[in-house]
Amino acid sequence: MPSLYRVRAAALCLLLAACGTSSDPVSDLCTVDGSLDLSEGLPGATVVFTGRPTSELFDTVVHVGGVEAEVVSVDRSDDCVFCDACVTDADCTGCETSCADCDAVCETCVETTTFLVPDLLPQETTVVLQNLWGSTDPIPFTVLGEDTGYTGARRRRTQGFRLPSLLPFTN
To answer: At residue 113, what are phi and psi to the nearest 5 degrees?
Structure first.
């Protein structure tokens, strides 16, 4: 018969496993729609996503090529107050496509999320924004970099001595 200690430990493990470990503050309530002001940028460049619905800075995550980017700000224009009131009065969910009564009012509401391109190697990739409302579909984005000639191949080290050249010496 298992000891009481083992039974309690097993129960605690099951309880912790049931709680989940994801800390992403996202839901699948709706698709976040919008676009980027840039289609390419160097690491550290500022990129602005314009679209909706947005939420708050603390629950917004942006991934560039699967790497979390620093979110600098989440802003809403003053006209968004009227959109919010309409959505509340119409008893809508807050998703743009689910509240036809408020489309005209919400059209003037501008919502932006500003983020920095993370330190990545040059590549064609995607950006995904996630927040309390849901997430965007992947948006194509190119991370730029200086052309260093790097091809990804490993260089052979010579352990402190130079290999002789096979080319004849020329002046």
So the answer is: -125, 120
